[in-house]
Amino acid sequence: MKRFQACKELTGIIKELDEEIKLMQDYVKNPAKANFGEVSHKNHSSDDVMKTMAKIEQYVSVRLSFDKSRNEKWNLLNIAMRNVGVSEIDIRMMKLRYFYGLSWNEVARMITAETGKKFDVQKLFRHQRKIKKKLT
What we know:
The protein is mainly α and 136 residues long. Helices cover 77% and strands 3% of the residues. The protein is built from 5 helices and 2 strands; from the N terminus they run αββαααα. It has helices at 2-29, 46-83, 88-99, 104-115, 121-135; strands spanning 35-36, 39-40. Strands 1-2 form a two-stranded antiparallel sheet. Helix 1 packs antiparallel against helix 2 (46-83), helix 1 (2-29) packs across helix 3 and helix 2 (46-83) packs antiparallel against helix 3.
C-alpha cells in the first residue's frame, strides 16, 4: 500500500537530515576537527561557522516539516487500521516498520520481546498482507 511506503520514505529522509544536521553541529562545535563528506576544511573563519549555523536552522526547519507530514500520514493510517479492526499488536508492528523504519528482523525481535510470543519475519509478512487487504 502506497500510504505505508510514503510514511517509510519520509522516515528515511528524516534520518538523512538528522545525519547532515549532526555533521554540521560537529563542525560548529569544533571546526578544525570536522570533516564534511569528502572535503576537510583547513581554514575556518567565523563566517564559515555562521553560514553553517544558518544552514543548520534551514535543515532543522525542513526536518520538522517532514516530521509533521509523516505524523499526519501515520495518524490517518492508524485511524484507518483501527476502523477496520486491526489489533494493537499489528498496529505496533506496522508502526515499527513504516513509521520508525526498522527492518523486518528488528520488528520481529521487538514484537517477540513485547508479546512473549514468537514472531518471525514470515509471520509478520502474513499479518502485513492481512492488514493491507483489510484496508483496500
